[in-house]
Structure formats: C-alpha cells, structure tokens
Amino acid sequence: MNHFLDIHKTDAGALRTMIDQAAAMKQARRDRPKGAPDDTQPLAGHMVALIFEKPSTRTRVSFDVGVRQMGGQTMVLSGSDMQLGHGETIADTARVLSRYVDLIMIRTFDEAVLTEMAEYADVPVINGLTDRTHPCQIMADVLTYEEHRGPIAGKKVVWTGDGNNVCSSFLHAAGQFGFDMTFTGPAQFDPEEEFVGLARSKGSRVVIERDAARAVEGADLVVADTWVSMHDAQSAKERRHNMLRPYQVNAELMAHAKPDALFMHCLPAHREEEATSEVMDGPNSVIFDEAENRLHAQKAIMRWCLGV
Ligand code: CP
Predict the structure, then answer these.
(1) Is 298 in the pocket of ligand 1 (CB under 6 A)?
(2) pTM of the prediction?
(3) pLDDT 10s digits, 153-184
C-alpha cells in the first residue's frame, strides 16, 4: 500500500520520480490549448475523499482540481460533519471509507489520527497536514526550487522563526533530497530534535543559529511561515510575536543571502509580520509558484499512491 504519510517515510527514489513527473505534467498542461483536458486521465473511475478537520484554501482546491484534471471525482468532507473520532473510531471510519473510495486525503490535528487511518484503510492515505508535518507542501517547494534554480541537492535552505510542522517536513526533505538546512529562531521554537537528528543521519548539514543575519549568510533559499499556526493557542499570540519579531524576513535580512536566493512562504501569510510585502512581492519571491505547484506535486503523489 503506497500511503503518502511523510517525506522521510517515503523512498527517496520514489520522491524523485514524483517531482520529475510533476514537472513533466505541469509542462504538458502548459503546452496544450487552454481549457483542453489532460492527455492522460489516470484517475478516471477513481473517487477521492478529501477530509478536512482544519481550514484550508490551497490544499482543498489543489487536491480537488488535481483529481478532476486527471479524470477522477472528489468528495470533500468536513471532519465536524463526520463521526470521525467521536461517534466512531478512526479505524472503523477508515474501513468504511475504503468500501466507497479509492484514495483518502486527510488534514487533521493529531498525527495519530492520520496513522490510524492509514493502518486500517484498505486504500492509500495522504497526509494533507497534521500538527506535526506537512509533506505535500514541501514536495511542492522542492519542485518550485528546482524549476527556478535546478537541483536542490547541496543547497543551503534557511528556515526562519517557528520550527513548526512545515519546518519538520523541510527537515525530512533535507535528508531525502540531500540539501542542508539552517534554522534560525528562539530556542523555544526549535524544530523537533528527532527530525534534526534524522536529517543529520542522512548526511544533511543542519545548523541552529540564533542570529538571523548570520544564519542567512550564503543562503540559496530563505523560508518564512506564520508565527501562530492553526494549532497554537491564540492567547499566546502576543508573546510569540514579541519573541519572533527579530526573525522577520525583510529586505535587510535577505541582503545577507546570496543575490539570487529565493524566498518561500507556504501561505497563508500575515504580511508585515513574518515577512514584509517588499520581500513577498519582490523579484526573488516564488510564493505563488509554490501555491500553484501544490497542484502539480499532488497529482504526482496521487498517481504514485494509486500506481497509475
Ligand atoms: N499552505 C497550505 O497548506 O495552505 P492551506 O492551509 O490554505 O491549505
């Protein structure tokens, strides 16, 4: 069963194939007349359940559109409207859904919900974000980096601010795709030690640097993310902002990176907080390419899951 649960749990060769296939499908779509369907419809006859226990714009729309472009159909389900985990065990929901659909994508809070869903489902399960990781986003980010600058292997990626779930998946990707990562932020927001160790064990150079300007020196890619994630208590907002403000990505900070360093943010962003509009809308920003590439990367992920 090809579940796509996390980047570090997926074979590195398979990840590379997915990125290359995503790039090829993106190009093929660009080459055909506007409005024409994809040449191949590998998901024809397939039904995909998209379950959201948290809000989403990009994940929801890109999965829905991606399935339809490949000839499949979707069912978008809200966790609050289902019996998921309250009226019924996750295991039973997984078994029931497997009788109706061919593939399940779930965005949830607790990673345990995802893993239980995968354990009991008879169809592949895709991680659409948990409190701990966001692998689909980072597959899109690798695709985005490579289409602008070539292979990401050996490059220096700098993560600024909160070592959150998206940062965790970047660390997983560092190990699998062979790039180095520097984290810069307050110690309280350090990325998970387990994931830092995992990246290092695969040969990635991972550095923790409290000084943002020093961290960004020589960076090929600078990444920012929101300072208060969906799963963080809103009551902690002011304290988090005060601690993370020195890590804002602005023009002054970007000046320490390589002149052609890219800027990424998975969105949604809080402009003038974690990053300034000057950087977000600047010539080195690829934030909307990242958003578009969710579509292409996830189409390849779904094909890999289904073997089509
Ligand atoms: N980046 C991302 O996952 O966006 P959504 O929360 O809108 O899906």
Answers:
(1) no
(2) 0.96
(3) 999 999 999 999 999 999 999 999 999 999 99
Q: Hey, what CATH topology would domain 7-134+294-306 get?
A: Rossmann fold (3.40.50)
Domain boundaries, the chain: 7-134+294-306, 135-290
Q: Ligand 1 in contact with 108 (CB < 6 A)?
A: no
- pLDDT for 96 equals 96
Is 83's pLDDT higher than 80?
no
Residue 85 has pLDDT above 80, yes or no: no
Give me the percent of the chain exceeding a pLDDT of 90.
Answer: 90
Distance 153 CA to ligand 1 centre (A): 25
Annotated catalytic residues are: 107, 134, 137, 225, 266, 294
Cβ neighbors of 82 (< 8 A, separation 6 or more) are 51, 93
**280 and 225 in contact (C-beta within 8 Å)?**
no
Burial tier of 152 (Cβ tally within 10 Å: 0-12, 13-18, 19+): buried
Q: Which fold has domain 135-290?
A: Rossmann fold (3.40.50)
Q: Fold identical between 7-134+294-306 and 135-290?
A: yes
The single-letter DSSP state of residue 256 is T
